[in-house]
């Protein structure tokens, strides 16, 4: 006999857990619970989609959250009914979160009753207006090519260089600097000399190691040309694909928060139903005579 399939969670319950994950992300220090029943002041237990407790355990403020994954906007009656529920369980604040917005009358009543109205849904291109969604990065690698490089020594000798990048000139204290690096540093302060024949006279004594003898350098010659090398390009997109924002009666939207659905789903997976109390009595029955 095959085992029964586990009951599939409804979209409404899955949305409630996403809302709980958002509340936990907004208030990391808050105590967030999903799908709880609280005793009302009339002695009847009322179901609350998400409960948020903020502050110390002894003086924690209770926030009741209603989450609606409907294919239509929330109406005024839904807001009114939730206000009664939140008030009877002693909530200091009420929040309604919708996946498809609110009717104008619902927003007006919510504002009058002090209930915050939010939307949580997949983000669309328009949601990113005024926000940075991604960056296009292009890195251009440029270098200075020293052509026709030549070293002229104080004794009148002239040495042509096959590769300016491999010839190192030495200072009196033994430090070494490559020919092309010296030229690049000088051109950084004198960019007008690019693509021209450059003649440099060392500010401090430099020596050219020719064979086994160090000979003082009088001048350095080369034609310095700036060359653009490989261009590296990349697009850095923000991974957030869901948006959470507050709706006001005048149809304006307050600051938007963007979330990555993968993170929300991971947070939602951390919320579970409270364990059901056993209905089996543990009291011993009296023996029948």
Automatic annotation (TrEMBL):
Gene3D superfamilies with a match to the protein in the record: 3.40.1350.10
Stretches for region Disordered: 269-289
GO biological process: DNA restriction-modification system
SUPFAM superfamilies recorded: Restriction endonuclease-like
One Pfam family, short name: Mrr_cat
Bias-annotated ranges (Basic residues): 273-289
GO molecular function, one term: DNA binding
Coiled coil: none
Domain Restriction endonuclease type IV Mrr: 10-112
Protein name (Swiss-Prot/TrEMBL): Restriction endonuclease type IV Mrr domain-containing protein
């Amino acid at each position: 006999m095959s085992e029964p399939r586990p009951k599939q969670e409804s979209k409404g319950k899955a949305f409630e857990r996403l809302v709980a994950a958002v509340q936990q992300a907004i208030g990391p220090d808050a105590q967030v619970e999903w799908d709880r029943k609280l005793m009302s002041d009339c002695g009847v237990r009322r179901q609350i989609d998400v409960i948020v407790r903020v502050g110390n355990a002894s003086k924690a403020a209770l926030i009741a959250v209603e989450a609606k994954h409907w294919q239509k906007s929330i109406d005024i009656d839904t807001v009114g009914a939730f206000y009664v529920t939140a008030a009877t369980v002693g909530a200091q604040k009420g929040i309604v979160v919708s996946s498809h917005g609110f009717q104008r009358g619902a927003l007006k009543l919510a504002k009058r009753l002090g209930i915050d109205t939010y939307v949580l849904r997949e983000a669309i291109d328009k949601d990113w207006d005024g926000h940075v969604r991604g960056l296009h990065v292009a890195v251009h690698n440029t270098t200075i090519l020293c052509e026709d490089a030549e070293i002229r020594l104080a004794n009148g000798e002239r040495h042509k260089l096959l590769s300016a990048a491999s010839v190192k000139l030495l200072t009196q204290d033994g430090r070494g600097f490559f020919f092309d690096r010296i030229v690049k540093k000088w051109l950084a302060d004198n960019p007008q000399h690019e693509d021209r024949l450059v003649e440099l006279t060392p500010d401090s004594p430099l020596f050219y190691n020719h064979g086994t003898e160090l000979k003082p350098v009088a001048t350095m010659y080369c034609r310095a040309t700036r060359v653009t090398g490989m261009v590296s390009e990349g697009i850095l997109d923000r991974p957030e694909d869901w948006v959470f924002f507050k709706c006001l009666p005048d149809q304006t939207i307050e600051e938007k928060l963007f979330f990555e659905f993968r993170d929300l789903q991971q947070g939602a997976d951390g919320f579970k139903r409270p364990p059901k109390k056993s209905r089996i009595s543990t009291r011993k029955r009296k023996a029948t005579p």
